[in-house]
Amino acid sequence: MRYTRTLLKVLGFVWVTLVLPFALISAQVIEQLPRKGFPQNLYDTTLGFLFLPGWPIFLTCSVLALLLLATIVTAILAHRSKQDETPTPTTPGPITTNTILNNQGAASQTGETGTATASVAERTIRYLLAARNCLEELVREVQDIALDASSIDLSDLDAVLQLHKRIERYLYKDRIRLQFTDAVGGLQGSLKALRDRTESIEDWPRSQENKKAAVEDATKLLSEIVSILDNLQGPIGSGLCCNELYALSEKLTEPPPIRSDIDAMVKQIHTCLTDYGYIDTRRRIVKLSEQFMDAFPDVKVTPPVPEV
User: What pLDDT, on the 0 to 100 scale, is given for residue 46?
Assistant: First the structure.
């Protein structure tokens, strides 16, 4: 039932702010009344009309009994509703998505969560971190290629040939893009399911606000991640900064390769990584995963190592 937990919170508020203080005040008043002339002297107090014989005391007891009954029934329904939301795993053990299994321990296995919403949030975080790992592999390989090119001895023909082959493997082997596609596809599905749940399940206003903010920020970042994924495949290969890497490989094969040309291409590669925001996107994914863990405290995911 959608509003059961909200109703239970309202009833709890009524008990704490109205019923219990009323019972405490009544007990103190009765304790101070003289025993002689009781209960007539009780009827003469400010709230004594509630205990007058006949309809007044009947209505008072009826209201309290109905309030107690409503609280008990609502608590039972809320408990059953929470049990119904608990996900039933279809297969035991780790998530079968290859990208998630390769997520350096952060996405090694789904932990048990209290509700289905927490489970969806956990999958969302794991797919986020999986996408981040794929992007980091892509960025690191480009950075390593640029570093090798900036320090390579151009008179060492064997070293130049090995660097040229490394660039070709990055452009044409297309290993990481398939894992990246897998992670982004999982992220799209889990984020949609999480958005539906956060809009339908009632929660404390502050907690609900944090959840919706996390989902909204993830949706915005997802569009950027999808854009990066779409741009990985180009006419001359697959990966980040394909044009710059292809131009670098061409410069390496010129007889003889010129140091100033190589350094100029290395500079263009660094500019490409910065201008397109690949490194910044990687950091934002980590920060967003931390935001999700704050918004969904029931989620059990190993926090990623902060990036320097």
Answer: 56
